[in-house]
Design a protein that fits this description.
Layout lengths: L19 H22 L4 H28 L5 H19 L7 H19 L4 H4 L3 H9 L2
Length: 145
């Protein structure tokens, strides 16, 4: 089923958490989601869409690793809860992509948009104050392989 056209700007400065590396990651993820939305709307074949979902899942995973490393270095008090949210995203995308539990691709697209925008706007903004004055720690965490 082809989803109806979504009117969505992939980035708004309201989503900025105030740290360039994190904001750049978020922009990239949302750009990938916008491209996936366009693939849906253009009626691309299922393999193109599946490849787009894989790109989003892979990049999200690498972002989660960097972000969690940064939060650990900064001593963020709610790191375990934040990790659990990341894990819920990974679990849902894996479930949605499994042959045993296929999910409507339009539903998955809606989930990706809702999850990422909500996660950035609410949960990621919660750690802003924990990072103030810790630019060297942030840079070191992002520099690790």
């Amino acid at each position: 089923m082809k989803p109806e056209k979504l009117r969505w700007e992939f980035w708004s400065d309201d989503l900025a958490v105030g740290h360039v590396a994190i904001d750049d990651d978020h922009k990239r993820i949302l750009q990938f989601i916008a491209r996936l939305r366009n693939a849906f709307q253009m009626g691309e074949d299922e393999q193109v869409v599946a490849d787009g979902i894989k790109v989003i899942a892979d990049y999200s995973d690498s972002h989660f690793v960097r972000e969690e490393r940064m939060l650990e270095a900064a001593g963020y008090a709610h790191l375990q809860q934040h990790r659990a949210r990341h894990e819920s995203f990974r679990d849902y995308v894996a479930y949605a992509n499994s042959a045993q539990h296929p999910i409507d691709q339009g539903e998955l697209l809606s989930y990706l948009v809702d999850w990422w925008v909500g996660h950035i706007a609410a949960e990621d903004k919660m750690y802003r104050s924990a990072l103030v004055g810790k630019d060297a720690l942030i840079a070191a965490a992002f520099a690790e392989p």
